[in-house]
Amino acid sequence: YFLKGEKYHTLLAVTPHYEAPGLLDRIFERVSSYGLNKGKIHSRPALDNVGVAVEGVEPQTFYIEILDHQRSPVMQSCLKDISISLNRSSSGNKVVRVLGSYKEPITVRD
């Protein structure tokens, strides 16, 4: 569950099922269009077969931190939109996986 008014971070693993110039920008545009903001991003080689066959391009999984809770209505709509827009494969693998949400850490300043 989550409490309205609290600040949360949600970590996603996004594995696009195709390769195209500006693909990561398009993911961020979708996040932004829902009024959400990203915290951090990391990329690693994809571990599952995503059906991407572009010579010289290794399929990637993007680990993206979004500043909202996974169960908020806005986040749910955003996740659905990203999944639909990036799934161009019949591999059956999920494009967007939610790894979890957590409360924003409290920072102590001296």
* Uncertain stretches: none
The shape, in one word, is globular
Helical residue percent? Answer: 10-25%
Gyration radius (Cα, Å) is 15 Å
User: How many extended strands?
Assistant: 4
What is the residue-mean pLDDT, rounded to a whole number? Answer: 84
- Please write the string of helix (H) and strand (E) elements: EHEEHE
The percent range for strand residues is: 25-35%
- Tally of contiguous helical segments: 2
Largest sheet: 4 strands, antiparallel
* Strand order of the biggest β-sheet: 2-3-1-4
Distance between the termini: 32 Å
Class derived from helix and strand content: alpha+beta
Verbal overview:
The chain is α+β, with helices and mostly antiparallel strands. It is 23% helix and 27% strand. The chain has 2 helices and 4 strands. It has helices spanning 23-33, 73-86; strands at residues 8-14, 38-45, 60-66, 96-103. A 4-stranded antiparallel β-sheet has the order 2-3-1-4, with helices on one face. The radius of gyration is 15 Å and the shape is globular. The protein starts with 7 loop residues before the first strand and ends in a 7-residue tail after the last strand.
